[in-house]
Amino acid sequence: MKISREDLAGLIDSAALQDQMHALADAAGGNGADPKVRTQILMLLKKAMQDGRTLAEQRLNEDGGGLRCAWRLSHLQDELIRLVFDFALSRVYRTQNPSAAERLMVAAVGGYGRGTLAPGSDVDLLFVLPYKQTPWGEQVVEYILYMLWDLGLKVGHATRNIDECVRLSRADMTIRTAILEARRICGDEPLFEELLQRFLSEVVEGTSSEFIAAKLAERDSRHKRQGVSRYLVEPNIKEGKGGLRDLNTLFWIAKYHYQVRDQSELVKAGVLSRSEYNLFVKCEDFLWAVRCHLHFLTKRPEERLSFDVQREIAIRLGYTQHPGMKDVERFMKHYFLVAKDVGDLTRIFCAALEEQHVKEPLGQQIGHQIGAQIGGFMRRLRGGRPSKAARPVEGYPAFEVENNRLYTLSDRLFEDDPVNLIRVFQIADKNGYNLHPELTRMIRRSLGLIDGNVRKDPEANRLFVAILTSRNTPEKTLRKMNETGVLGRFVPDFGKVVAMMQFNMYHHYTVDEHLIRSIGVLHEIERGESGDENPLSTNLIKTLQNRKVLFVAMFLHDIAKGRPEDHSIAGARIARKLCPRFGLSASETETVAWLIEHHLDMSTVAQSRDLSDRKTIHDFAQIVQSMERLKLLLILTVADIRAVGPGVFNGWKGQLLRTLYYECELHLTGGHTTMSHNQAVDSARRTLMEKLGHWSEKERTAYGKRHYKAYWLRTDPERLVAHAELFRKTDKSGQQLAFKVTPHAFEGVTEVTVLAPDHPRLLSIIAGACYVTGANIVDAQIDTTTDGFALDTIFISRELPDDADEIRRGERIADNIRKALSGEAPLPDQTQRKGAMKGKVKAFKVEADVLVNNSWSEEYTVLEISGLDRAGLLYDLTRCISTLNLNIGSAHISTFGERVVDVFYVTDLTGQKIANIGRQEIIRERLGEAVDGKVDLSPAAPIARQVS
């Protein structure tokens, strides 16, 4: 792709501007250094620059050409620098007879040196002198820089003579790379030619291996900083994996070795084929379009495609909504497909170089020998065969392996038997081989061979299931199959979710990457590598009757994402179609389909239902029906959550899942029927009294009467003892308000127990106090006593690693709750809550939804409230519930990125369910308004007189 005169037309009229600048100097008696002349010239150039940028943005919107926009902006910048340079030499620092030292050349370096410039990019310049700096040269450089700075540009600059350029390039790889891309803008042309000649002969020659190793190491370090996956949902389009810098690295390496000046010369050099070069340009053009739009939109050099700009960029690029996919999701899918293509290109070119020149000791390679090695190696990369060191793969005579890389001797390997397109990955997985770059190329060229016959082939499907359920490295192999395009061709339903992004803050990766990662997590659990984090899953996976159904269900569980219908139901239907093809029996197929249809159920129930409510366990057990399904569903749920992204799965979620598992296990094995509720209450009370042997008989009898039946049924023995001691200590002190802080390191939460006189707004006030201190409540359990006290237990997200520090933090939160309850500390009012929704969350729109359900619990009405998360939401909801004259029995808070699901078990003030349809409608309406922040709730009245 080349820039044409038509592309640059109208951006800036350099000749007219030059005439105007000289006219201004003439009007001042020829004195171009006059401050008034300088101010007037700045005004002219500023207007020209702004007009040119406006026109560049307008043309970007019209033709969508990212590279064209970058070239236009670079051309505009070139002309501005030339005008300033020429004016400085002709009107400000004129020399009649310049000496040999009074020469100067201005070169663009870095990205600007490639002739591309983003709207917010720095302008990187190199001022080159023939010898040492002279007063004239210093004055000219200073004049140019101050003019550019006053134009509002960020200028990176260096002033060096040629000797310094050469010396510093040898020592500093960053400087070497900058000069590699140097492009003369104006000034002494022989200086530029001399710089290039000396750079090539004194720096580049004989150092290809050193440069390649440095660039690949730099690339790996950058990927590690930005995130090792190219499928992060908020990618960095410049520095991230699959971004512009990866294309730069590819070109730098080729340019350094082949000494080409233009990317198109890579085809002549045989580095890239014509189709690969076209793909290179296509990827670069798209990424530049996104980058330029991003800079124009944000009015700053923003390189991260964050959620709050993705939709606007999608609209600018002309994406529209399709059934099941938003406009922004279609745009981001295109982005990730381009990032994948960039990975393909850099992998083809760099993988072999990395193997040859990074893994071998570079100190053994010197001088022209290195150049010869690279040259010979590049010839092999373009179609040669492995050396005599290669050995055949046992049992597969068509394959050889060299340096642990799989290769083929046959040019017709895939044409003769397309099943080899699956077999090659099974061989690699079985033996731990990598694929030779040339074999990877052959695979990509042969994708069209994977047709309906191959998909139906029993052997191909057997090999695929062997890869999927491998005990070696299934994640690595599946990712390679995906990167080469084989996975999407062999399983077309998987191909539909390749590079598919879900526009939310919960999922960190694209759908295909999530599915592949989930297989990796499952593999870790099976190998016992995550036993400390997932002890139950690690133990249960060893007891499964059929591990194959678990891995197949894991691979397919999100395969129907992006469709108009519920992806769990659609995914189960796809599984019923695919599993027989994979060789699964009818019963195995049904189990896989069931797991996919219900893969969210366990997570939903564990995080948003009262697990001490027998109805919750009964209903969940009715869905599961068997212990084998319960095991499979638990393991799949854990792996699914862990594969969503780093930090999404935590100890608290793990504890909730384990509790649900154990409670359901009791139900499925008949444990719940062995003891009546009254017997269970008597047993819990009797066990506690035995542990309170240091109490008097009178104290124990009185305390046993203070709690209702529900408390004894749902509170574990350790907490029963802790609560009893808290009550006793409080009674003896004569106080009516007490707190206990207990950190739980494994679960990642801190438990704060509040003992206070019962009050309808107690939980609301606690939530408000936590909101003020920035504490995040993840769960709450509310109990009342027969003598008018409330025992509220809240669980807040842990922030500090050390237990002692976390206890002190919890005590500060408890003190803030005490002050709020006694009226010493005011709670936020409506005005303070304005603007609580900031940052990324504003990019999302989640409709408020309120469900009022009387079938989920025998004793409570369950309110399920979902909507857009924001600071203070729980506080608003609990206040609203209080104003509706409802008592809260328990609260369960779940956050999924920007979406929150808060569930409250409530009764009316008489302890009854909310049966009146009209009242239910009022509850839905008021709570929906509270989610959106539209209800004006006056601050809760303090209950100081009750706790004083």
From TrEMBL:
<dbReference type="InterPro" id="IPR006674">
    <property type="entry name" value="HD_domain"/>
</dbReference>
<dbReference type="InterPro" id="IPR010043">
    <property type="entry name" value="UTase/UR"/>
</dbReference>
<keyword id="KW-0511">Multifunctional enzyme</keyword>
<dbReference type="InterPro" id="IPR002934">
    <property type="entry name" value="Polymerase_NTP_transf_dom"/>
</dbReference>
<feature type="domain" description="ACT">
    <location>
        <begin position="862"/>
        <end position="942"/>
    </location>
</feature>
<dbReference type="InterPro" id="IPR013546">
    <property type="entry name" value="PII_UdlTrfase/GS_AdlTrfase"/>
</dbReference>
<keyword id="KW-0677">Repeat</keyword>
<feature type="domain" description="HD">
    <location>
        <begin position="511"/>
        <end position="633"/>
    </location>
</feature>
<keyword id="KW-0808">Transferase</keyword>
<keyword id="KW-0460">Magnesium</keyword>
<dbReference type="InterPro" id="IPR002912">
    <property type="entry name" value="ACT_dom"/>
</dbReference>
<dbReference type="Pfam" id="PF01909">
    <property type="entry name" value="NTP_transf_2"/>
</dbReference>
<feature type="domain" description="ACT">
    <location>
        <begin position="751"/>
        <end position="832"/>
    </location>
</feature>
<comment type="function">
    <text>Modifies, by uridylylation and deuridylylation, the PII regulatory proteins (GlnB and homologs), in response to the nitrogen status of the cell that GlnD senses through the glutamine level. Under low glutamine levels, catalyzes the conversion of the PII proteins and UTP to PII-UMP and PPi, while under higher glutamine levels, GlnD hydrolyzes PII-UMP to PII and UMP (deuridylylation). Thus, controls uridylylation state and activity of the PII proteins, and plays an important role in the regulation of nitrogen metabolism.</text>
</comment>
<keyword id="KW-0378">Hydrolase</keyword>
<dbReference type="InterPro" id="IPR043519">
    <property type="entry name" value="NT_sf"/>
</dbReference>
<dbReference type="Pfam" id="PF01966">
    <property type="entry name" value="HD"/>
</dbReference>
<dbReference type="GO" id="GO:0008773">
    <property type="term" value="F:[protein-PII] uridylyltransferase activity"/>
</dbReference>
<keyword id="KW-0548">Nucleotidyltransferase</keyword>
<dbReference type="Pfam" id="PF08335">
    <property type="entry name" value="GlnD_UR_UTase"/>
</dbReference>
<feature type="region of interest" description="Uridylyltransferase">
    <location>
        <begin position="1"/>
        <end position="392"/>
    </location>
</feature>
<dbReference type="InterPro" id="IPR003607">
    <property type="entry name" value="HD/PDEase_dom"/>
</dbReference>
<protein>
    <recommendedName>
        <fullName>Bifunctional uridylyltransferase/uridylyl-removing enzyme</fullName>
        <ecNumber>2.7.7.59</ecNumber>
        <ecNumber>3.1.4.-</ecNumber>
    </recommendedName>
</protein>
<dbReference type="Pfam" id="PF24931">
    <property type="entry name" value="ACT_ACR9_3rd"/>
</dbReference>
<dbReference type="InterPro" id="IPR045865">
    <property type="entry name" value="ACT-like_dom_sf"/>
</dbReference>
<comment type="similarity">
    <text>Belongs to the GlnD family.</text>
</comment>
